[in-house]
Design brief:
By secondary structure, the protein is mainly beta. About 10% of the residues lie in helices and about 30% in strands.
Length: about 190
């Protein structure tokens, strides 16, 4: 449990490099035992909710035929209960977004990023960073040291519904559009 509450959304939260208009979000953060800075809440969840994540590798949700899997007791951390795959570090948010764009749009499987927050500026040439949401777009948040990324599955009045790995105990979440650093789509 302490490890779970330790690293929330490490390799899975936001991006650098979009216009200053999108860099405005800086949520309240708390220090955890490992010294990582994490949002107190993210969408519909808090760090405590991550303990409800299903076992490692369990399918939590699916969009466009691309399943989002649980990171088990590592949910919300920069660690993986899995291994490296052809599309990245298994069960991490970046791996889901890369896998979605690879399988659905034929984009290269691994992008030149270390963390989610780099995806707005560092992505394959067939991807572009935009400032508006649409179902099927990637989304990047500028939270903590690592950021978070997901795929938009619905757009509401000031909100976006997403499918994600390593950011919620269900694989889906709702975020405020004002929290977004950028959206990603095929060029």
């Amino acid at each position: 449990m302490q490890l779970l509450t330790t690293v929330l959304i490490l390799a899975c939260l936001a991006v650098t490099g979009a216009s200053d208009v999108f860099r405005k979000f800086n949520p309240p953060q708390v220090d955890n035992a490992q010294g990582f800075l994490l949002p107190k809440s993210f969408g519909n969840y808090t760090i405590a909710n991550l303990a409800d994540a299903p076992p490692c590798g369990t399918e939590m949700a699916s969009y466009a035929g691309i399943a989002a899997y649980s990171n088990g007791d590592q949910q919300g951390t920069g660690y993986s209960c899995g291994d490296w795959t052809a599309t990245g570090y298994q069960y991490q948010c970046v791996e889901y977004t890369q896998r979605y764009f690879n399988y659905v749009h034929g984009v290269q499987a691994v992008w030149p990023v270390n963390f989610a927050k780099e995806m707005c500026d560092s992505h394959p040439g067939s991807i572009q960073s935009v400032g508006w949401p649409q179902a099927g777009y990637g989304v990047v948040f500028n939270w903590g040291e690592y950021g978070h990324t997901a795929v938009v599955i619905g757009v509401g009045d000031g909100t976006i519904d997403v499918i994600e790995e390593n950011g919620s105990p269900t694989g889906t979440n709702t975020y405020q559009q004002g929290d977004v650093l950028c959206y990603l789509t095929t060029a």
